[in-house]
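Sequence in, structure out.
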Amino acid sequence: MDFVEVKNKKGTSNKLPPTGYDSWLDFWEKKKGFKASTCEVLLCKNTAKVGGHIIKAGEGGKEYIAPLCYECNNKPDNEVFKIYENDLVPVK
């Protein structure tokens, strides 16, 4: 599995998930077909609490959702961290 460098996308706290999903974490779980357990950030062992909006570092616009703990979801938007690319679910 390949890792990708990502960072939090700023200005997404008011974004609602698409119709039919209870939360962004629910969106991720239904798209992937299983429940999130731990935060997907490399080396983080905390419980996933939210579906965090992230973008690939250096790529810019395309937005993804991944299960994150509160701490990782609140990292500054200029801080790069690693996540498995397979764990990213694109936001259309």
